[in-house]
Structure formats: structure tokens, C-alpha cells
């Protein structure tokens, strides 16, 4: 897929994120918008999945550890054909398929229920280890937030992944620098992220998380790393693509109103 095609997919996903959260009057636009480009490369180029068989045994697995960014994953899964676009417009409604955090029991394409921060990498470790035990060739991909890696369980999982040489596991850190209470550096500094993972025995790659060539190149390098898990520390922009949301902590967990939605869609090339 060309970069232009990926960019078109990303713009559509970002439009859907804004419309979904506006319709729901609740959600987390900032951190959803920052992971869109990584998801497009994963689902449209890298991962082995079959939307007609969401539980296919030999599929690659994906874990959205920062589960509150679910609208980005939902919109990507709909674009990939796992379910119809109409499902997006009932985000967070009682009885609807798409809730505020991913649910593997109700949503095709969701491999792990997440939302309690810090737990996704541990779940992914279990998946990757089971693939090793079964001599299966499928891989596991994870996206965690930079604020999320303040959780101690992340580092227990980081030790375990290295101990068991889970080279079929790739972790993205969505390093947008902001979390619900402010900047990472003010709340609880996670720096230096890359050096910490190196000290835990990981293969470390550092990229611009909005650069498609950089994302795909890092994924290739991760796939070829042997004997250790890989982490891709992706520098991103919270609220990416919408000028009044970019790098603004207020948009961590606030829904746009109709006027703001219209303005955002105008920037993204869409209509309300």
C-alpha cells in the first residue's frame, strides 16, 4: 500500500474518531488520534488477519493496552472489514457492541479486553509464549501509552518477555508526552524510555510515529530480531490532525461539541 493510500485511510479513521466521540458525548480523542498511523500500517500492511474469520487460529494478535483509545481501533477494524461502519455511531451506548474499552467477547477483531492500564503487555506475553510453545509462526503486537508505563506491571512484563526471549512480540510505546493529569515529566517521568527497555534486554527502535516509512521499517527490523522482544518508541502528537487538539491535555478525555466536530472534520476533509 502506498503512503498516500495509508494517509487516506488515516484521515478517514480520524474523521470517524471525531464523529464517534461527538455522537457519544464521551471518549478520549487525544490518545486515539495519536495512534492512528501505527494502526494503519499494522492492519493494512503488516498483520496477518482475515476479517471473515476473526478467530482464525493462525492470525496475528493485537492488544490495545491503552484501551481508552478504542475508537481508533474500532474505526480501523471497520475500515478493514471486521464489521460495518454503522456500528461506529453507537459508541458507548447501552447494549451496543462498541463500548468505551475493547471487549473481546462482543467485538470481532478484538483479541484482548483491555482498559485497566498496565495489563496489556502481560496478556500479550502470554499469547506470544503460547505461540512459542505451539511452534506457531503468528506474532503479537501491542500499543501502550507512555503514561501507562508508569505502571509497575509493565516492567514485570518487560522482564518476563526478555526472560522468555519473546522475539515474536512487538510493543509500540505511544510517546505523545501527555496523560490525563498533565505532562509525563510533571506527573511521573518515564524518561529515558529507550534506555530503560535496553537495560531490560529488549531490541529498541525509536521512530516518528506518524511517518509511514519509519513505522514499516521498524516493524521489519522487529520481525528480524532474534532472541529478544522488540519495542518501538514512537514519538507522536496527542490529538494529531486537528489543530486545536494537538498537544492539548484538555483533549485527553473530552468529547467535542457539534461546532468543534464540524471544525475538526473541516480540517480532516470531511463533513458532520
UniProtKB/TrEMBL annotation:
Keywords: Metal-binding, Thiamine pyrophosphate, Transferase
Signal peptide stretch: none
Cofactor dependence: thiamine diphosphate
InterPro entries for the chain: THDP-binding, Transketolase_CS, Transketolase_N
One Pfam family it belongs to: Transketolase_N
Transketolase N-terminal domain residues: 11-266
Recorded GO MF terms: metal ion binding; transferase activity
Entries under PANTHER family matching the protein: TRANSKETOLASE N-TERMINAL SECTION-RELATED
The protein, known as: Transketolase
Amino acid at each position: 500500500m502506498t503512503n498516500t493510500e495509508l494517509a487516506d485511510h488515516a484521515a478517514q479513521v480520524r474523521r470517524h474518531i471525531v464523529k464517534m466521540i461527538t455522537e457519544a458525548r464521551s471518549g478520549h480523542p487525544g490518545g486515539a488520534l495519536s495512534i492512528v498511523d501505527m494502526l494503519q500500517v499494522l492492519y493494512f500492511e503488516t498483520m496477518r488477519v482475515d476479517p471473515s474469520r476473526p478467530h482464525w487460529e493462525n492470525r496475528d494478535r493485537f492488544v490495545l493496552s491503552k484501551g481508552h483509545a478504542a475508537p481508533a481501533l474500532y474505526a480501523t477494524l471497520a475500515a478493514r472489514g471486521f464489521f460495518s461502519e454503522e456500528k461506529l455511531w453507537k459508541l458507548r451506548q447501552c447494549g451496543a457492541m462498541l463500548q468505551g474499552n475493547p471487549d473481546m467477547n462482543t467485538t470481532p477483531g478484538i483479541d484482548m479486553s483491555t482498559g485497566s492500564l498496565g495489563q496489556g503487555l502481560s496478556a500479550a506475553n502470554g499469547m506470544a509464549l503460547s505461540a512459542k510453545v505451539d511452534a506457531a509462526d503468528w506474532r503479537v503486537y501491542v500499543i501502550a501509552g507512555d503514561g501507562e508505563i508508569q505502571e509497575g506491571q509493565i516492567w514485570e512484563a518487560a522482564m518476563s518477555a526478555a526472560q522468555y526471549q519473546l522475539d515474536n512480540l512487538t510493543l509500540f510505546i505511544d510517546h505523545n508526552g501527555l496523560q490525563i493529569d498533565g505532562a509525563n515529566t510533571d506527573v511521573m517521568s518515564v524518561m529515558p524510555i529507550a534506555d530503560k527497555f535496553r537495560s531490560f534486554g529488549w531490541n529498541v527502535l525509536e521512530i516518528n510515529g506518524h511517518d509511514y516509512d519509519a513505522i514499516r521499517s521498524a516493524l521489519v527490523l522487529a520481525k528480524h530480531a532474534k532472541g529478544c522482544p522488540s519495542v518501538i518508541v514512537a514519538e507522536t502528537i496527542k490529538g494529531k490532525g486537528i489543530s486545536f487538539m494537538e498537544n492539548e491535555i484538555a483533549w485527553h478525555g473530552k468529547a467535542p461539541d457539534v461546532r468543534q466536530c464540524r471544525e475538526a472534520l473541516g480540517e480532516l476533509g470531511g463533513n458532520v
